[in-house]
Amino acid sequence: MTRLRHLVWMLIAAGVLVLSTSQGFAQGRPDADEPGLVADDTYELDPEWQKQVVYYRTNEAPGTIIVATAERHLYLVQGNGRALRYGIGVGREGFQWQGLVTITRKAEWPDWVPPPEMIQRQPYLPRFMAGGPGNPLGARAMYLGTTVYRIHGTNRPDTIGTAVSSGCFRLVNNDVADLYNRVPVGTKVIIRQKPEL
Amino acid sequence: MRTFRGGLIIGLAVAVLVAAAAVTYERYDTKTLKRTQRRGEVLCGVNKGLPGFSIPDDKGKWTGFDVDFCRAVAAAIFDDPSKAKFVPLDAGERFKELQNRTVDILSRNTTWSMSRETDYDFYFPAVAYYDGQGFMIPRSRNIDSALDLNDSKVCVQGNTTTQLNLADYFRANNMKYTEMKFDKLDDVVKAYNSGQCDTLTSDASQLYALRLNLSKPNDHMILADIISKEPLAPVVRQRDDDWMMIVKWTLYAMINAEELGVTSKNIDEALKSKKPEVMRLVGTEGAYGENLGLTKDWAARIIRHVGNYGEIYDRNVGADSKLKIPRGMNQLWNAGGVQYAPPIR
Fold first, then answer.
1. Which residue in B144, B218, B259 is closest to A53 by CB distance?
2. B86, containing H or E segment
3. Alpha carbons A56 and A84: distance in angstroms, whole number
4. CB contact A197 to B (< 8 Å)
5. What is the ipTM of this complex?
6. What are the residue ranges of helices labelled H in A45-172?
């Protein structure tokens, strides 16, 4: 009898432990940001997220960036019914936005200064992190209008195709460097969301 | 004598009328929905085996884009997608079997063309899948346009429209090519796989399927260029407008659902939506379903059981399938493609 009671208590304790750690994980790392982790540049993306030329019909001028968040794709309009398509990671639930902005600044291996809102939500984040391979902003950043949002690289290529960010759009480092070389400051960026019910 | 002649004339008149009625009935079938409902299932003519579009597994369970479309029609009528029965038909017999009413609908990668509507008295209600001829190349060639294919050796199946389109395209763009022609598609693929040609041309949907059979699929890519129009559409008999409308609006309901963000996963939430367009789609406002001869929730049934257009695309031929065909022209009109459905209102 006592043995059985022991067992029950052990099971309950184990259950509580599992619950608390998994919840701690969910709350503590909502962002899938892992400052310090060096990106695995050999990581192979799913074909869906690999950079490719696709058919794309649009009224927007060549050189325009269109971010289709629901699809997790970023299109760079090429004209003549085509676009260069990149796989991206997008903002998680509650961190989705849409609109028209322009690229106001470009930076290579940018430093990371998480904005105060983000620090408040995720107090464990560093207040400043110098640019480099372990930086969650990755190899390049393109600043969007006057917002706190950017198109940037990542040290977590496995998050491409998912909705985990705080509203930024992340590409793998090779792709973000490729995009960076193709677009100047002043580039028009259109962000589209899925329709609401 | 007089009465006999009179009787003869009346008898003759009746015979003529009956014959005319029979001919009319034979030619102008207007009862497909009723027969379908009486039978309790929709008979769908499908391809015998085309990966991504319609193919049975070893247990006889059908999957594919065309198969799911037919299930959507069954869901709209019966609230049960399993009420679609699949009749495998090859390309040669498909039109005859539709005319003979062996099937209610062809949902079988059939290209919509003018002569097919006029010659067979058929109607293609709407384009389900925009296909077209494209090119597969080894990735190592490092080009991204078909206009860079000058001086290529091109593998192609002989005696097909594909071969003619190829000639037209190269001529129109002042490019030269060497044709490597084979009678059988298998031989075309073998030749390409062994490096005998620089590129292989066929319909794009087929190129993605053929690529799976190459020794190193990932070393090959399909160019975004499409050089011919192959609009694949379901087919029904002419002069049964009620049935044609059901088939047409089944497809349009799925496209509208994607545009409005209604999916098989959030359909219950959509039924509570206060957005007028969503309410008209799912039947919480208006009598659009009744006017089709179905129920108010006809579209909700389709979306719940089968999904919206994007869902059936992704699952069967797109990102979540083995084929991984980019949406391309089949993306919605407001997201870079040409899929466009008239509104439900």
1. B144
2. strand B84-88
3. 9
4. yes
5. 0.85
6. 116-121
